[in-house]
Write the structure tokens for this entry.
Amino acid sequence: MCGIIALVNADPDSHVNQALVDGLTMLQHRGQDAAGIVTCHRNRLNMRKDNGTVAEVFTQESVQHLKGNIGIGHVRYPTAGGSCSAEAQPFYTNYPFGIALAHNGNLTNTAELTAQMSNVFRHINTGSDSELLLNLFADELQRRQLTYITPNDIFDAVRIVMRKCRGSYAVVVLINRIGLLAFRDPYGIRPLCFGKRRTAHGTDYAIASESVAIDSLDPLFKLERDVHPGEAIFITMQGQQFLNRQILSSPKFAPCLFEYVYFSRPDSVMDGIKVYEARIGMGEKLAKRIIDVLGPDHDIDVVMPIPETSRTAALQCAHLLQRPYREGYVKNRYIARTFIMPGQEVRRKTVRLKLNTVRSEFYGRNVLLIDDSIVRGTTSIELISMAREAGAKKVYFASAAPPVRFANVYGIDIPTRAELVAYGRDEEEITDCLGADRVIYNTLEDIRDAVVSLNPDHVTILEDSCFSGQYVTGDITEAYLASLEAARGEGRNARTASPPLLIIPTEVPDQNTASGFADDIQATNTIIADETLSGKRITSSTSLLPDPTALCTSPVRPPQHPRALSLDVQYELELDNPDGNVSLLSLPTDPTFLSAGSPGSACDAIHNISSPRGG
């Protein structure tokens, strides 16, 4: 998921550099991995891009070098390719003319397109589909062998690109000496809008992923509309001409539902739908769902949002449930959004740095926590644990979105089904995994209605594949999904030579003995063992089994959920990893962590147990 922006000022002596930085800052929520800007000044393209946030990448000195009245910008979270600075956008090619491109979305036929580029001797230097898109467009312009291109030539090139590309894309392109181009995929999956500002020199134009980026630039900038699905817009270097053309007719208009659930800012308007009002509707639907599940005489004492996206839905839900709304978690604003942080372990560790509890709001109460969605479950597990540590009697956990059970291939980082806590599980099983007293989801039909009802004449269906498993482009096969998961697994193994290991004991160990079942409550890489492995060395596995009793031969389920327990004493253990390194582990000794394993089973790899220490 990424954010893009483009600006054209009618005054040739003005500079868009600071406005681009400001616009990207307003889109920072869409990605904190990298940022970049390209401007054009006196037929020279100026570029600055690197890994980091907007504030980190653009110093005062670097911004001063980005002169020009026209430019494009990008903030990135990687969903294709890697995380090196070479894959920061915009991408640039010098032939023909000098072209820079920024892209939000994900192409699903990259292997086919890469082969086509190889056949015409265009080298793709990164794993980014955005660089591929740039070269596709540049190749189509180059084929015309023109010393000067017209808007018709540009629109014809876009038509060929759209016919070749599958997947989702919202794109802005800066062509040296020619002008600015923007286009959106025929399904309109990824958002794109534009606005205008009247000045003494003429009309200035702004194009962005979200309307909030245009609103923030200047009170004189007015949002015009969204770029239509399959539409292209071309603006000359000083804004003298603004041309638009419907390149391909839309087979079906299906904007991304997850944009309204999570990604977009609540003050944005997308495809005629106010994101804030959509989330209000989700909160209303969720309140009715909670009453259906828990009954009108439920024992909820207080409603709390998980900052910040869920606040809108939680506030409306509390109002309809007639329960007080409280801010039980305080957010550290200097920590990035955990969903779009790369790596499961990084997300888990960041939760407690990002959020802290107001203990007085939890102590002795039955709390209802509301989040916008539950994806991997990593954050939810930590939040529920923190609520219990703060003294909550019961913890109900509600999601304004339905269960996320399927991969998303259109630009959201949900490519592996095994990472999803809801994949293959019902609400009761998810409750066990997360350690809540009850997990409650909105239904897909309800949140579809909450969004579509706000603009039924324009939006009738939504891209909701991560909830439904139905892909609007119609070309996503099981083989394609399997290849994505395999590629993600290879990337994870390359980044982590020794997976994190977790041991759950089969009995309460004293200072000299321990036996263990290996498992993983948090759905990260783990070792897995049971009685059948007695006498064998424990080795690592990439199996993902969030249910702590999944491999137990005769499991004894604890009376409470494991994550709800306070672990006061821990033991440290050393285990051999397959790569020859030794991992130092903390072994919880709570008596409710029980299984039917015999003492000493599956423990050959344990070399040392230290004295117990306070947790």
Observations:
- Residues 294 and 438 are 9 Å apart (CA to CA).
